[in-house]
Amino acid sequence: MKIAVCIKQVPSTNEVHMDPVTNTIIRDGKQSVTNPFDTYALEQAVQIKDHLGGEVIALSMGIPATERLLRDATSRGADRSLLLSDRSFAGADTLATSYTLSLGIRELGGVDLILCGKMAVDGDTAQIGPELAEQLGLPHVTDVLAIDAIDEQTVLCRKATDNGYQRLKVTLPALLTVVKDLNMPRMSSLPGILYSLDSPFESKTAADLSADPARIGLNGSPTQVVRTYVPQRIREAIVLEGDESQLAEDILNIYSEVI
Amino acid sequence: MTGLKIHQDKCVGCGLCVKTCAADALAIQNKKAVVNEACFLCGMCLDSCPFKAISIEKQAAPKEDLSAYHGIWIYAEQQQGKILQVAYELLGKGQELAKQKGCKLTALLFGNDVANEAQSLIAYGADEVLLCEHPLLDTQIGENYIDLFDQLIQERKPEILLFGATGFGRSIAPRIAARRQTGLTADCTILEIDPVKGLLNQTRPAFGGNLMATIICPNHRPQMATVRPGIMQVQPCDVTHTGEIIRVDYPDQDASKTASIELLEQVIAAHVNTIVDADIIISAGKGIGSQKNMELVKRLAELMGGVVGVSRPLVDIGWSEYQNQVGQTGSTVSPKLLITFGISGAIQHLAGIGGAKTIIAVNTDPEAPIFSVAHYKVVADCVEILKHMIANLEALPENGLLIEESKDKLS
Ligand SMILES: Cc1cc2nc3c(=O)[nH]c(=O)nc-3n(C[C@H](O)[C@H](O)[C@H](O)COP(=O)(O)OP(=O)(O)OC[C@H]3O[C@@H](n4cnc5c(N)ncnc54)[C@H](O)[C@@H]3O)c2cc1C
Ligand SMILES: Cc1cc2nc3c(=O)[nH]c(=O)nc-3n(C[C@H](O)[C@H](O)[C@H](O)COP(=O)(O)OP(=O)(O)OC[C@H]3O[C@@H](n4cnc5c(N)ncnc54)[C@H](O)[C@@H]3O)c2cc1C
Ligand code: SF4
Ligand code: SF4
User: Within the 39-78 window of chain A, which residues sit less than 8 Å (CB to CB) from chain B?
Assistant: First the structure.
């Protein structure tokens, strides 16, 4: 079984502040980490490999520094990694990102299963998984919370829905996006870390992938961010006062008013 | 040339943009901002420059003729023959947008036996309903819907297409966008028509709610967005509103594609008990102090006819289950009433409660961030408040005090 895990580099915190004097956005947390959901996808892939044999490849589109996170993935059970990195990939929206990733998957060849995180904690769209599946013409299932059985041809999985779950039988090759409760990601082991230091790593450019220049990066992105701002959350709350029994009564009065 | 451009005539070298960039791609040299190769064109610095000295230049897209695209479509998602609330919300918003654009509002109703729901979509504002009934549309297997959407878009060319940002909507909309090679904005909370360009301005939270981004899709059609449930206003039902119901055929499906995903079982949790569509949520955070106090929270929820919500730490330490978690990595909720007990209001938590109509927050710390979004502020010990509320409610006749009293009399 050949499994590709899509890994995104994200900022270590989501904190965004508004400079009160200049009214501009200030972002902290310049250190990058692996998108938390992707660590569950990786762990799932490694568990499947442990069970069926095969190979796990960590795949990312990102800046050259993403190599560090891909090597980290190989210290946690991935066999090798592929980075798609090129100046011309910059500014990609989800359509251009998923097109680029689809070239990476084609480059790997013969992939049976693609695992993605449910969403990235920065961009937050949860669109890459389904769009990548479409670009490859594969079936997909989002929000997978458990894999009940898997063999070379099919996977039986459980998908979280808004009000319950579905049990699905999916014919491979296919793409799944995973939620967080699926497993407990392992820590890197010492042999894992040693392996990762010179684990096979490749970086490919747009030219290496014969990418269509009109479909990558900023030029290949139909959406355009025209404005960003920090939301104003300030609301003057009505302060309730009194002793605890008075407060409890006041709350219950509001309850009967609004319901 | 594609890329970030700093306009030398406008830049004064103030350095504000340098602070904004998370990639360390900007620096000041000789009193002017310069950009290096670390820039990944995220666009964050654009609004940081008070002098409008930064722009992102994009190669002009080959002009496709977009004038053939007309009308606003909303997908009226249904489950087991019942239209979801978010569809009515989309109709509410859609009416406003259609009025501004002077175009028709169309609802898409797909299912197996759903025709009798079409009229209510019209009463809530649809000028037209595209109805497709087919056994393959009976269950929510996204795969079975894509060709149908694709065919209708190609034939009828809508200018705007909106989905509810439900689990199902967020699974199929990206596939349809990728099939049509158009843009899709995720989980929008504000939609407006730009009065000058006529484009749809789609505003959404990103970075876990820390940042709002307004996104447009200027050169591709349809302009697509998923819209967060519980935000848009439903317009009053108008039974005199007329509309046309048009039946459309289910496309010939490539058999192998529909066979690639098979539904073995669908489990739907008892409807009233999910936090996502609860009207009343009683939420607890770490300030609750101990696991045994969770019983008080459950009891209060029961007495008030609500459900329990929690912050993430309570799930992490096992005092509650993931289904109850509210926030960025849990559920987004939009109850009529939310009462929070001992929740600080971390940004990741606030990301999930923006849709609550009334928020009452109880916290011992008067400076807790939760108070900046609450409608009512209660600075007090949450356990005491819980106990008093429970006592007050249990004292109500319908909640059994009479039984207690009569027991007393008997003994
Ligand atoms: C403020 C802001 C708002 C944005 N809003 C939109 C929008 O509404 N629509 C839109 O089309 N684009 C949007 N973008 C652009 C979007 O964030 C990027 O295209 C990003 O590269 C991928 O989207 P995501 O972070 O939402 O990923 P998601 O779709 O949330 O990620 C899901 C999974 O896909 C995989 N994945 C995602 N990116 C990569 C990668 N680079 N390499 C490998 N695997 C990956 C991971 O497994 C990840 O867990 C926005 C960007 C910003 C800064
Ligand atoms: C990537 C990421 C995703 C996350 N996703 C989520 C998410 O989806 N949902 C979520 O909730 N969190 C999420 N978090 C965690 C979040 O950052 C906070 O840590 C969390 O919300 C805090 O929970 P809390 O308010 O219960 O606890 P705390 O922040 O510890 O707050 C406890 C509060 O209780 C008050 N208090 C103490 N004693 C009493 C008393 N006796 N009576 C009344 N008040 C009292 C205190 O003043 C304090 O304000 C996420 C974090 C990260 C990094
Ligand atoms: S576009 Fe983004 S990465 Fe580039 S300089 Fe501006 S903030 Fe930095
Ligand atoms: S914020 Fe604007 S004016 Fe200030 S240094 Fe940056 S580009 Fe120049």
Answer: 63
